């Protein structure tokens, strides 16, 4: 273990993105400790707070891990929280609200758990500062507990606003795609400098922007601030250094993205977001029906999140769209196609079995990420598949 890595952190993510997040953490030079659904625990130095908040593309939040312990009763929860060194972070005037979750554990009442955790922190800080009343008017340290199978983990949030909110998308369309998931879709599609990436259902432009940011190595958190920038024990220098490091790692690339949509209003919205993200030099945004795409004489990859669920009013509209996509995209081989959908029978409607399907979650919506990358057309489909398309 690196002797400089004195702190433990927890980075949370959407279900299905744990391996991508873990790879990011390793690439930053930190030591992974544990990976479970939706979170990666790792060790790092103090500067990791700034570097991870600014650079992690697939994380939702970054927490300082205060400790973990068995908690099957409220007494065990109180004693475990009371034993942790809260005074290392929280001063006597600071605010420390509490929230959390409990899964598959004996302690099921979240309000009761919140109350116990709060009382235990107050008890610990009262003994440390020799006071009984906390004004909580200073810096906010959001405390979060997570109880899984009777093991409680106590953490302090360093991010504030969730990390998927990069700052370039103040307004989104109906059922927007989370930025972290868009980045994951792009990463899984294996983008390359010389290969066009096209999102024909661009909506507010999220996939296109995340692709351009990834390929220019633009850190997703460069344009925003974080809760931990107010923490007393974090020198301003770690934030300055982290931002300078991130800026120095940006790269020039010929990478090009097309962002198109049938709705002119969405194209206008996407253009505004692209401008805010400063990615206009890599993204062409225009109006076009996705089922009218004609293959250009160049290598390309389609990565898209076509409408489903709340974005189309009826199942028949979804089915018709997917059938028409299948007809159109069958003429684009050898382009590679990557499609996110929550519709269970997507492949039947689309008319071709995917080469690979990966389960991802857009918030709480379970989706399949259907990957067509074997550079073949639809000519080998069985007659029954043809019937499904037509």
A few lines on this structure:
The protein has 11 helices and 14 strands. It is α/β, with parallel strands linked by helices and 390 residues long. A 7-stranded mixed beta sheet has the order 2-3-1-4-7-6-5.
Describe the protein's architecture and organization.
- With 390 residues, the chain is of the alpha/beta class.
- It is built from eleven helices and 14 strands.
- The strands form two sheets. A seven-stranded mixed beta sheet has the order 2-3-1-4-7-6-5.
- The chain is elongated, with a radius of gyration of 24 Å.
- It starts with 6 loop residues before the first strand and ends with a helix.
- 41% of the residues are buried.
- Mean pLDDT is 92; it is low at 378-390.
């Amino acid at each position: 273990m690196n002797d400089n890595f004195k702190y433990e952190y927890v980075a949370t993510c959407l279900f299905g993105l744990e391996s991508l997040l873990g790879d990011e953490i390793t690439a930053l030079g930190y030591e992974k400790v544990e990976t479970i659904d939706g979170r990666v625990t790792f060790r790092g130095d103090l500067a990791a707070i700034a570097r991870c908040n600014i650079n992690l593309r697939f994380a939702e939040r970054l927490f300082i891990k205060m400790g973990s312990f068995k908690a099957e009763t409220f007494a065990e929860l109180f004693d475990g929280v009371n034993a942790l060194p809260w005074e290392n972070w929280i001063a006597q005037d600071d605010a420390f609200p509490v929230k959390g979750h409990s899964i598959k554990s004996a302690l099921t009442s979240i309000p009761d758990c919140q109350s116990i955790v709060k009382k235990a922190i107050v008890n610990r800080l009262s003994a440390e500062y020799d006071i009984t009343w906390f004004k909580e008017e200073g810096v906010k340290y959001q405390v979060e507990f997570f109880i899984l199978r009777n093991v409680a983990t106590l953490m302090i949030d360093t991010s504030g606003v969730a990390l998927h909110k990069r700052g370039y998308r103040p307004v989104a369309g109906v059922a927007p795609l989370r930025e972290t998931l868009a980045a994951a879709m792009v990463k899984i599609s294996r983008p390359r400098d010389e290969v066009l990436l096209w999102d024909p259902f661009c909506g507010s432009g999220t996939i296109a922007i995340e692709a351009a940011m990834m390929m220019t190595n633009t850190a997703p958190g460069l344009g925003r601030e974080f809760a931990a920038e107010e923490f007393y024990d974090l020198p301003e220098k770690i934030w300055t250094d982290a931002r300078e490091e991130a800026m120095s790692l940006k790269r020039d690339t010929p990478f090009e993205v097309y962002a198109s949509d049938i709705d002119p209003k969405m194209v206008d919205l996407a253009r505004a977001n692209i401008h805010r993200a400063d990615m206009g030099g890599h993204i062409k945004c225009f109006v076009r029906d996705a089922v009218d795409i004609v293959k250009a004489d160049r290598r390309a990859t389609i990565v898209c999140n076509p409408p489903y669920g709340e974005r189309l009013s009826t199942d028949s509209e979804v089915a018709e769209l997917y059938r028409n996509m299948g007809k159109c995209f069958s003429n684009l081989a050898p382009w590679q196609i990557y499609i996110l959908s929550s519709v269970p029978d997507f492949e039947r409607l689309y008319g071709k079995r995917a080469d690979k399907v990966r389960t991802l979650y857009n918030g709480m919506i379970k989706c399949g990420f259907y990957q067509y990358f074997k550079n073949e057309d639809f000519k080998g489909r069985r007659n029954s598949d043809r019937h499904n398309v037509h």
